[in-house]
Amino acid sequence: MATEPVNATEFQELARQALPKMYYDYYAGGAEDQYTLKENVEAFRRITIRPRILVDVSKVDLSTSILGYKTSAPIMIAPTGMHKLAHPEGEVATARAAAACNTIMALSFSSSCTLEEVASSCDADRFFQLYVYKIRDISALVVQRAERNGFKAIILTADTPRLGRREADIKNKMIVPPLRNLEGLISTDVVTDSGSNLEAYASATMDSSFCWKDIAWLKSITNLPILIKGVLTPEDAIKALEVGVAGLIVSNHGARQLDYSPATITVLEEVVQAVQGKIPVLLDGGVRRGTDIFKALALGAQAVMIGRPVVFGLAAKGEYGVRRVVNMLKDELELSMALAGCCTVKDITRGHVRTEHDRVRCKI
């Protein structure tokens, strides 16, 4: 691609050209048939926007707050692992870009930079994403390090009792480097002849027994607010309320876990309705345009999380690429709001979108 990208999606082709096939496939791929991977994006396209005209939109304000932390737009950087596979500066470059864009970054448990390196790289609000290991003291130590280093919240990824079947990684015999945040705590060397060492390592370490009652343990080891990532049903949203978490993230793990699980935007509204405004709901998965963000906000999300586009921007152009991706999405959202007649994110309502369900209901 000879010209500068004009939208976030165009960074994917630049990343494909820049990365070894094994690493590109790792970032880009989904589970099994990759049905959910495609649906995460396609489902947004089946939602239309209902603009209102003759509204004074000479000033449009994207700013909002997430768990009380102010941000320039309802956009967060999602936790994605091993950024040094994409760029030598890894998560430090991503963190600096997030700070420059005045948005919140969620640092992955599987970061290739330590949380101390990321915390000292720039001054910004950050959340930390957690997996729970069979040896829970390891997870506890990492959570406590995050708290000491100024991270503002813990995001518990709850949809990974085992790793999804990512066939591209198996074919490529994907090899990942040791996890920097676990140095000195546990061996990260796993040898396997049957597929990716990531899959083998996850099977050896993940605590598949972790369940709802164990949220009490997590709350006992930190004073930070806890969000649960991986909610796809109103039943689980209600359970999350019952155990007293601070927020939910509607997510299918970027379609990397259970294939044929629903596209996140298709279940967002029922999760939002289940929590009845008692805690914030964020959306992760499939966001590629400012219009996607607008649609998610109209269906009740407080903000969206951006994963693959950020990694592709990092792979293509480093810190600058991440900044460009975030700013492109912000610019597109601002334009979408102006053209739809919304001056602030609070002005975006359910009446501004029409879903497939609405169309079926109208026919009935």
TrEMBL record:
Q: What processes does the entry annotate via GO biological process terms? A: defense response to bacterium; hydrogen peroxide biosynthetic process
Instruction: Name the domain of life.
Output: Eukaryota
Q: Which cofactors does the annotated protein need, by name?
A: FMN
Catalytic activity of the protein: 2-hydroxyhexanoate + O2 = 2-oxohexanoate + H2O2; 2-hydroxyoctanoate + O2 = 2-oxooctanoate + H2O2; a (2S)-2-hydroxycarboxylate + O2 = a 2-oxocarboxylate + H2O2
**Organism annotation:** Cinchona calisaya
Q: Which residues bind FMN?
A: 79-81, 108, 129, 157, 229, 251, 284-288, 307-308
Return one GO MF term. Answer: (S)-2-hydroxy-acid oxidase activity
Q: Which PROSITE patterns match?
A: FMN_HYDROXY_ACID_DH_1, FMN_HYDROXY_ACID_DH_2
Using the UniProt record, name the top-level EC class of this enzyme in a single word: oxidoreductase
The EC designation for this entry is 1.1.3.15
The name of this protein is: (S)-2-hydroxy-acid oxidase
In which broad location class does this protein mainly occur, judging by the first location in its UniProt entry?
other
